[in-house]
Amino acid sequence: xRRHFILAALIALPSAALADEGHDHHAHxxxxxxxxxxxxxxxxxxxxxxxNIRTIEVAMTDxxxxxxxxxxxxxxxxxxxxxxxxxxxxxxxxxGTESELSKHAVEMEKFPEMEHDDPNAVSVEPGKTAELVWxxxxxxxxxxxxxxxxxxxxxxxxxxxxxxK
Length: 165
Ligand SMILES: [Cu+2]
What we know:
Elements: H1 2-12, H2 17-32, E1 44-45, E2 54-61, E3 65-67, E4 70-73, E5 78-85, E6 91-95, H3 98-110, E7 121-124, E8 129-135, E9 140-147, E10 159-164
Parallel strand pairs: 2-5, 4-10
Antiparallel strand pairs: 1-8, 2-3, 5-8, 6-7, 6-9, 9-10
Helix pairs in contact: 1-2
The structure holds copper (II) ion.
Copper (II) ion is lined by residues 60, 91, 148, 150, 153, 158.
């Protein structure tokens, strides 16, 4: 988040960026850094210190399933996903629309070593847990709203539904 803001500021106002950074970050940073990455249709990366934060635990299994595979979220809520890999192979939790995820899954088949370093995704080694915080600013129903894009996982049904209202 912060890094994105600084990059945007450097592009937009090269001379003012450094002077601005100290005090103007909160006033102007948000707009300049509006999130437009993957899963933007559902909102934006969340703040782990948000007051209305709610925790949802999601398990990932070697049966290529998420548990639960359906999430109900209130619009405007910040969710801290606590994503646990209960299997013996690596899995990942990636938020995104069906078109984003399926496109990405195809790329993953070609480049299986590709790692995700995006705010909408976490890769989790077997037995480990990772967290992802997302602010669901938009209402909608996504029959596919998250998935695991490791080769063969998504196509075997490792995906889930998100309803935000
Ligand atoms: Cu997986």
